[in-house]
Design brief:
Blueprint lengths: L1 E4 L5 H14 L11 H8 L6 E6 L5 E9 L8 E8 L8 H15 L4 E8 L3 H9 L3 E12 L3 E11 L1
Parallel strand pairs: 4-5
Antiparallel strand pairs: 1-2, 2-3, 3-4, 5-7, 6-7
């Protein structure tokens, strides 16, 4: 697996991963009917943000991440990131590799911490991964996410100092 910066041409390969996860409705508060162009506007963050893809030896997209400053101005010293792993690639270490890449990028870019604003509490594999990578839950907004499978669940705010 290789993690590399995404280009505009990668969107057509990212889209099936993005669309499947958004349509599932279990991990992102995006509209499940998000279109191709709306998805591109949401995910393909321009510089100084960064979008990456994890690809296999044949160049197939296994997952993707986007990262950048969590806020502007006086909050610009804290990064944020979002991750999506293709359903067929789950359990293969893609999410961990993308997370480690985001931590390394944010550290090199001079950020002081990374904050995840909305980790769905019922997404236990993601919560466990982020905790294993040094993130802590600093708060949970109760019943802030409507999970199709679990009903109303909390959204964790998770932070890792760099």
């Amino acid at each position: 697996m290789e993690i590399r910066d995404a280009t505009a041409a990668d969107w057509s390969a990212i889209w099936p991963v993005f669309a499947a996860i958004v349509r599932e409705g279990e991990t992102y508060a995006y509209d499940v009917e998000t279109t191709y162009d709306e998805g591109r506007a949401l995910w393909m963050e321009p510089p100084p943000g960064r979008v990456v893809v994890a690809v296999d030896d044949d160049g197939a997209v296994l997952g993707t991440a986007k990262m950048g400053a969590n806020r502007g101005g006086n909050g610009a010293h804290v990064a944020t990131a979002s991750f999506m792993v293709d359903t067929a690639a789950r359990g293969l270490g893609v999410g961990r590799a993308l997370g480690e890449d985001a931590i390394a990028w944010a550290t090199a870019a001079g950020f002081r911490a990374i904050q995840f604003n909305a980790v769905v509490a019922s997404n236990t594999p993601a919560v466990a991964l982020w905790q294993a990578l040094g993130f802590t839950i600093v708060g949970t907004v109760p019943e802030a996410f409507a999970s199709p499978a679990h009903g109303l669940v909390g959204l964790h705010v998770m932070v890792r100092r760099l």
